[in-house]
Amino acid sequence: MKSTSFRLHVPSAASEYCDWLFSNHKFVFLLSRPRRTRLGDFTVKPGLIPKITVNANLNPYSFLITYLHEVAHCVVHYKYKGRLKKRVAPHGQEWKHEFGVLLQPVLTESVFPKDILVHLVRYSKNPTASTGGDQLLFNALRKYDDQAANIGRVLLAQLHEGSNFVFQNRTFTRGILRRTRILCTDKASQRLYTIPAHALVEAC
Protein backbone atom coordinates (compact mmCIF):
# COMPACT_ATOMS: atom_id res chain seq x y z
CA MET A 1 0.00 0.00 0.00
CA LYS A 2 1.41 3.39 -0.97
CA SER A 3 1.28 6.64 1.01
CA THR A 4 -1.30 8.09 -1.39
CA SER A 5 -3.65 5.31 -0.28
CA PHE A 6 -3.17 6.09 3.41
CA ARG A 7 -4.59 9.55 2.77
CA LEU A 8 -7.87 7.93 1.80
CA HIS A 9 -8.20 6.14 5.13
CA VAL A 10 -6.65 8.22 7.92
CA PRO A 11 -6.91 11.89 8.95
CA SER A 12 -4.78 13.90 6.52
CA ALA A 13 -2.53 15.24 9.29
CA ALA A 14 -1.48 11.65 10.07
CA SER A 15 -0.95 10.33 6.53
CA GLU A 16 2.77 11.17 6.34
CA TYR A 17 3.37 9.54 9.72
CA CYS A 18 1.59 6.37 8.55
CA ASP A 19 3.71 6.38 5.41
CA TRP A 20 6.89 6.86 7.47
CA LEU A 21 6.03 3.86 9.65
CA PHE A 22 5.35 1.78 6.55
CA SER A 23 8.71 2.77 5.08
CA ASN A 24 10.73 2.26 8.24
CA HIS A 25 9.30 -1.03 9.51
CA LYS A 26 9.42 -4.19 7.47
CA PHE A 27 5.90 -5.45 6.89
CA VAL A 28 3.33 -6.03 4.18
CA PHE A 29 0.20 -3.92 4.50
CA LEU A 30 -3.18 -4.89 3.07
CA LEU A 31 -6.71 -3.56 3.30
CA SER A 32 -9.21 -6.17 4.39
CA ARG A 33 -12.91 -6.65 3.74
CA PRO A 34 -15.01 -5.85 6.83
CA ARG A 35 -14.65 -8.43 9.58
CA ARG A 36 -17.05 -8.69 12.50
CA THR A 37 -14.57 -10.19 14.94
CA ARG A 38 -11.57 -7.92 14.38
CA LEU A 39 -10.63 -4.50 13.04
CA GLY A 40 -7.10 -5.48 12.06
CA ASP A 41 -4.45 -8.11 12.59
CA PHE A 42 -0.73 -8.83 12.58
CA THR A 43 0.51 -12.21 11.38
CA VAL A 44 3.96 -13.76 11.11
CA LYS A 45 4.79 -16.94 9.22
CA PRO A 46 8.24 -18.60 9.08
CA GLY A 47 10.36 -17.24 6.26
CA LEU A 48 7.87 -14.52 5.29
CA ILE A 49 7.67 -10.79 5.96
CA PRO A 50 5.11 -9.98 8.71
CA LYS A 51 1.70 -8.88 7.43
CA ILE A 52 -0.65 -6.23 8.77
CA THR A 53 -4.26 -5.90 7.67
CA VAL A 54 -6.87 -3.27 8.59
CA ASN A 55 -10.56 -3.31 7.70
CA ALA A 56 -11.15 -0.95 4.79
CA ASN A 57 -14.53 0.29 6.05
CA LEU A 58 -13.32 1.87 9.31
CA ASN A 59 -13.78 5.58 9.92
CA PRO A 60 -10.47 7.54 9.66
CA TYR A 61 -9.92 7.69 13.43
CA SER A 62 -10.57 4.00 14.05
CA PHE A 63 -8.43 3.13 11.03
CA LEU A 64 -5.47 5.14 12.36
CA ILE A 65 -5.70 3.69 15.87
CA THR A 66 -6.03 0.15 14.50
CA TYR A 67 -3.08 0.65 12.15
CA LEU A 68 -0.85 1.87 14.99
CA HIS A 69 -2.08 -1.01 17.17
CA GLU A 70 -0.86 -3.51 14.57
CA VAL A 71 2.41 -1.67 13.85
CA ALA A 72 3.12 -1.91 17.58
CA HIS A 73 2.90 -5.70 17.24
CA CYS A 74 5.40 -5.48 14.38
CA VAL A 75 7.81 -3.37 16.46
CA VAL A 76 7.60 -5.85 19.33
CA HIS A 77 8.22 -8.74 16.92
CA TYR A 78 11.47 -7.27 15.62
CA LYS A 79 12.63 -5.63 18.84
CA TYR A 80 12.07 -8.43 21.32
CA LYS A 81 12.06 -11.73 19.45
CA GLY A 82 14.95 -13.88 20.64
CA ARG A 83 16.10 -11.26 23.15
CA LEU A 84 13.87 -12.21 26.05
CA LYS A 85 13.92 -15.59 27.71
CA LYS A 86 10.28 -15.33 28.61
CA ARG A 87 7.48 -15.47 26.06
CA VAL A 88 6.27 -12.03 25.03
CA ALA A 89 2.51 -11.77 25.58
CA PRO A 90 0.55 -10.47 22.55
CA HIS A 91 -0.76 -7.46 24.50
CA GLY A 92 1.72 -7.48 27.35
CA GLN A 93 3.89 -4.70 28.73
CA GLU A 94 6.16 -4.63 25.69
CA TRP A 95 3.24 -4.08 23.33
CA LYS A 96 1.60 -1.54 25.66
CA HIS A 97 4.83 0.47 25.73
CA GLU A 98 5.39 0.41 21.97
CA PHE A 99 1.76 1.23 21.18
CA GLY A 100 1.87 4.15 23.61
CA VAL A 101 5.02 5.45 21.91
CA LEU A 102 3.47 5.16 18.44
CA LEU A 103 0.36 7.03 19.56
CA GLN A 104 2.22 10.06 20.95
CA PRO A 105 2.83 11.89 17.62
CA VAL A 106 -0.88 11.81 16.72
CA LEU A 107 -2.36 12.82 20.07
CA THR A 108 -3.20 16.32 18.81
CA GLU A 109 -6.33 18.18 17.76
CA SER A 110 -4.97 18.40 14.22
CA VAL A 111 -5.51 14.64 13.95
CA PHE A 112 -8.39 13.75 16.30
CA PRO A 113 -11.52 15.69 17.26
CA LYS A 114 -11.66 16.65 20.93
CA ASP A 115 -14.36 14.14 21.83
CA ILE A 116 -12.05 11.28 20.79
CA LEU A 117 -8.75 12.85 21.86
CA VAL A 118 -9.67 13.27 25.51
CA HIS A 119 -10.35 9.55 25.85
CA LEU A 120 -7.50 8.43 23.58
CA VAL A 121 -4.92 10.31 25.67
CA ARG A 122 -6.12 8.47 28.76
CA TYR A 123 -6.28 5.15 26.90
CA SER A 124 -2.71 5.56 25.57
CA LYS A 125 -1.29 5.41 29.09
CA ASN A 126 -2.46 1.81 29.53
CA PRO A 127 -3.88 0.50 26.24
CA THR A 128 -5.93 -2.68 26.11
CA ALA A 129 -6.15 -5.39 23.47
CA SER A 130 -9.13 -3.62 21.87
CA THR A 131 -10.54 -0.10 21.94
CA GLY A 132 -13.85 -1.84 22.59
CA GLY A 133 -12.54 -2.54 26.06
CA ASP A 134 -12.63 1.17 26.84
CA GLN A 135 -16.31 2.07 26.68
CA LEU A 136 -15.83 5.84 26.63
CA LEU A 137 -13.32 5.70 23.77
CA PHE A 138 -15.43 3.14 21.93
CA ASN A 139 -18.52 5.35 22.16
CA ALA A 140 -16.58 8.39 20.94
CA LEU A 141 -15.23 6.51 17.92
CA ARG A 142 -18.60 4.94 17.13
CA LYS A 143 -20.15 8.36 16.54
CA TYR A 144 -18.10 8.58 13.33
CA ASP A 145 -19.14 5.12 12.12
CA ASP A 146 -22.24 5.86 10.02
CA GLN A 147 -21.02 4.04 6.93
CA ALA A 148 -24.15 4.52 4.81
CA ALA A 149 -24.23 8.26 5.41
CA ASN A 150 -20.52 8.60 4.71
CA ILE A 151 -20.42 6.92 1.31
CA GLY A 152 -19.02 9.40 -1.22
CA ARG A 153 -17.81 11.78 1.47
CA VAL A 154 -14.26 12.86 2.29
CA LEU A 155 -12.60 14.71 5.12
CA LEU A 156 -12.65 18.46 4.52
CA ALA A 157 -8.91 18.57 5.25
CA GLN A 158 -8.31 16.28 2.26
CA LEU A 159 -9.67 18.84 -0.22
CA HIS A 160 -7.38 21.40 -1.83
CA GLU A 161 -7.85 25.11 -1.13
CA GLY A 162 -10.35 26.55 -3.60
CA SER A 163 -12.29 23.29 -3.90
CA ASN A 164 -16.07 23.41 -3.67
CA PHE A 165 -17.99 21.05 -1.42
CA VAL A 166 -21.40 20.45 0.13
CA PHE A 167 -21.79 20.48 3.91
CA GLN A 168 -25.15 20.44 5.70
CA ASN A 169 -26.94 20.99 2.37
CA ARG A 170 -24.98 24.16 1.59
CA THR A 171 -22.19 24.67 -0.93
CA PHE A 172 -18.87 26.10 0.30
CA THR A 173 -15.42 26.87 -1.04
CA ARG A 174 -12.51 25.56 1.04
CA GLY A 175 -10.08 28.16 2.36
CA ILE A 176 -7.03 28.10 4.64
CA LEU A 177 -6.45 25.87 7.65
CA ARG A 178 -6.60 27.57 11.04
CA ARG A 179 -5.31 25.03 13.56
CA THR A 180 -8.13 22.47 13.72
CA ARG A 181 -10.70 24.35 11.62
CA ILE A 182 -10.80 25.51 8.01
CA LEU A 183 -12.02 28.92 6.85
CA CYS A 184 -14.68 28.38 4.20
CA THR A 185 -16.90 30.64 2.09
CA ASP A 186 -20.62 30.04 1.69
CA LYS A 187 -21.14 30.18 -2.09
CA ALA A 188 -24.65 31.63 -1.82
CA SER A 189 -24.13 34.36 0.80
CA GLN A 190 -20.33 34.80 0.47
CA ARG A 191 -20.16 34.73 4.28
CA LEU A 192 -17.15 33.14 5.96
CA TYR A 193 -17.43 30.16 8.30
CA THR A 194 -14.92 27.97 10.09
CA ILE A 195 -15.64 24.26 9.73
CA PRO A 196 -13.78 21.46 11.57
CA ALA A 197 -10.99 20.03 9.42
CA HIS A 198 -12.23 16.51 10.21
CA ALA A 199 -15.78 17.20 9.00
CA LEU A 200 -17.06 14.80 6.35
CA VAL A 201 -18.17 16.65 3.20
CA GLU A 202 -19.26 15.91 -0.36
CA ALA A 203 -16.80 17.16 -2.97
CA CYS A 204 -18.37 18.95 -5.93
Provide structural commentary.
It is a single chain. This protein is α+β, with helices and mostly antiparallel strands and 204 residues long. The protein has seven helices and nine strands; from the N terminus they run H-H-E-E-E-H-H-H-H-H-E-E-E-E-E-E. Helix 3 crosses helix 4 and helix 5 runs antiparallel to helix 6 (135-142).
The amount of helix comes to 25-40%
Biggest β-sheet: strands ordered side by side in the sheet: 4-9-5-6-7-8
One letter per element, helices H and strands E, the order comes to HHEEEHHHHHEEEEEE
* CA radius of gyration: 18 Å
| Tally of alpha and pi helices | 7
The largest sheet, given as strand count, sense and whether it forms a barrel, is: 6 strands, antiparallel
SSE-based structural type: alpha+beta
End-to-end distance: 27 Å
DSSP summary, beta strand count: 9
Shape: elongated
Give the averaged pLDDT, no decimals: 89
Poorly predicted tracts of residues: none
Count of domains: 2
Proportion of strand residues: 15-25%
Brief characterization of the structure:
By secondary structure, the protein is α+β, with helices and mostly antiparallel strands. 34% of the residues lie in helices and 22% in strands. A hairpin with a 2-residue loop joins strand 6 and strand 7.
Which properties best describe this structure?
SH3 type barrels; alpha+beta; 3-stranded mixed β-sheet; 22% strand
Give the topology:
Blueprint: H1 3-6, H2 15-24, E1 28-32, E2 40-43, E3 51-55, H3 60-80, H4 93-103, H5 114-124, H6 135-142, H7 147-150, E4 154-155, E5 164-167, E6 170-178, E7 181-186, E8 192-196, E9 200-203
Parallel strand pairs: 1-3
Antiparallel strand pairs: 2-3, 4-9, 5-6, 5-9, 6-7, 7-8
